[in-house]
Amino acid sequence: MPASAIVASVLAVAVAASPGFDHSPFDELLRRHVTDGLVDYDAFARSPEFRAYLEALASARLEGLSELERLAFWINAYNAWTIEQVNAHEERESIRKINKTLGVLPLKGPWSERMVRAAGRTLSLDEVEHLTIRKQFDEPRIHFALVCAALGCPPLRSEAYTGRRLEEQLEEQARTFLRHSPLKNRVDVAERTVWASPILTWYMEDFGGTNESLGRFLARYWSEGPEQELLLSGTFRLRKTDYDWTLNSVEKGLSRSPE
Fold first, then answer.
1. 258 lies in some domain
2. Is 185's pLDDT higher than 90?
3. Residue 11 and residue 40: Cα distance in Å, rounded?
């Protein structure tokens, strides 16, 4: 099927699904080309269906969508355009190399480049995250769903987010990132120390702004026992773990030792 016909087909499905937005093309791509959070960027680059989905995001109308549907839309838009940005710059080492500052010349950096076309607007990834998602939605678990193309990020899901399943998906993302990535997040009762991904400290205000409020949030994902008690007490030292900016590609991920 010609690329123009694919674009027209995806746009037609999105319009027909109104007042919702159909993310099934992205869902199918994620299922085919994302494995255990690792992305086959070359497959996305070759895919006319992905190009069509990006065009559908660009022309989407969000009027009439529920709050959950709008949040799912913006999470998918952020993740899809992050993949596109990596491919547009043909970057295969680290997203931080995109628009990297050279000497004293201030360049945009990856998150300031205004290339995200969504809902009739052109935004940067920073604007999507900070001025749209964080400003409009009181939902700290988005930090486990937005994936900045790095191995240090939470894993990219092998499915698209939807309003209907968003609560379940965000809970799974939080539990996976917090409990199944010990090099990123763990509780050391003996040392009364919580080792946390920098994501949790970068966005501390979204988790209440204090060790105590962060501990209460994290305690939801630990079973009853010494670790949960320490988290609920708030009397722990908070230490950051290392953040791996290596590209979350299949090639790079498979070369790393498992956690």
1. no
2. yes
3. 25
Write the secondary structure of 26-48 as one string of H (helix), E (strand) and C (coil): HHHHHHHHEECCEECHHHHHHCH
* Cα end-to-end span (Å), the chain: 42
Q: Mean pLDDT, the chain, as a whole number?
A: 92
Q: What angle do CA 210, 212, 217 make, to 5 degrees?
A: 95
- Domain containing residue 201: 186-241
Q: What is the CA radius of gyration of the chain?
A: 19
Q: Is 87 helix (H, G, I), strand (E, B) or coil?
A: helix
Residues 6+ apart with CB under 8 A from 235: 192
**Residue 22 in domain:** yes
In a 3-state reduction of DSSP, which class is residue 254? helix
- Structure pTM? 0.90
Tokens read off for 243: 């953040």
